[in-house]
C-alpha cells in the first residue's frame, strides 16, 4: 500500500509540474521583412522561448505599442508580449527570464531604438540599457550592457 501511495504522489507531482517546465510563449508583432526582428526572434528561440510572429502595417504596430503602455521614446522596431508583460525591442532573453521570475508590478521591458550589439543587431561593445517601464509610464534602468 505504501508503494502505491508513493507512486500516485509522484505521478501527481509530475503532472502539476509540467506547466512550469513548458516554455513561455512570446507573441511578437513586427513589420514584414525586418531582419533585426528576425534576429531577435531567433535569439529568443535559442534561449528556450516559444515565439509566434505576426506582421502588421506600421500604423497598427505603433498603435499596439501605445495601447501596451509605451511612450514613443520607449519604442523600437518590434513588440513582444509574454507572461502579461510587453517586451519592446532588442531586450536580451536573460532579462526577459529575470522579469518573469521577479514579476514586478510593471508594464514590461524595453530597449529603445536599435542599439548595436543588442540581440538581433550584430556584435558591438556599444553600451545600452534595458529599461523597466512602470505602470505610470516612467522607466528605470533594469540592466546595462555589455555586462
Question: TL;DR?
Answer:
With 147 residues, this protein is of the alpha/beta class. It has four helices and seven strands, in the order H-E-H-E-H-E-E-H-E-E-E.
Structural class: alpha/beta
Kindly state the percentage of residues in helix: 25-40%
Number of helical segments with 4 or more residues? 4
> Care to count the β-strands?
7
Which stretches are low in confidence, meaning pLDDT under 50 for 5 or more residues running?
1-21
User: Per DSSP, what share of the residues sits in E-state strands of 2 or more residues?
Assistant: 25-35%
- The CA-CA distance between the termini, in Å, is 55 Å
Calculate the mean pLDDT score and round it: 88
Largest sheet: 7 strands, mixed
Rg, nearest Å: 18 Å
What would the principal axes of the Cα set say about the shape? globular
Topology:
Blueprint: H1 2-21, E1 25-30, H2 35-46, E2 50-55, H3 58-67, E3 79-82, E4 85-89, H4 93-102, E5 108-111, E6 128-133, E7 139-145
Parallel strand pairs: 1-2, 4-5
Antiparallel strand pairs: 1-3, 3-4, 5-6, 6-7
Characterise this structure.
- The protein is an alpha/beta fold.
- It contains 4 helices and 7 strands.
- It has helices at residues 2-21, 35-46, 58-67, 93-102, and strands at 25-30, 50-55, 79-82, 85-89, 108-111, 128-133, 139-145.
- A 7-stranded mixed β-sheet has the order 2-1-3-4-5-6-7, sandwiched between helices.
- The chain is globular and about 30 Å long.
- The termini are far apart.
- The model is unreliable at 1-21 (pLDDT under 50).
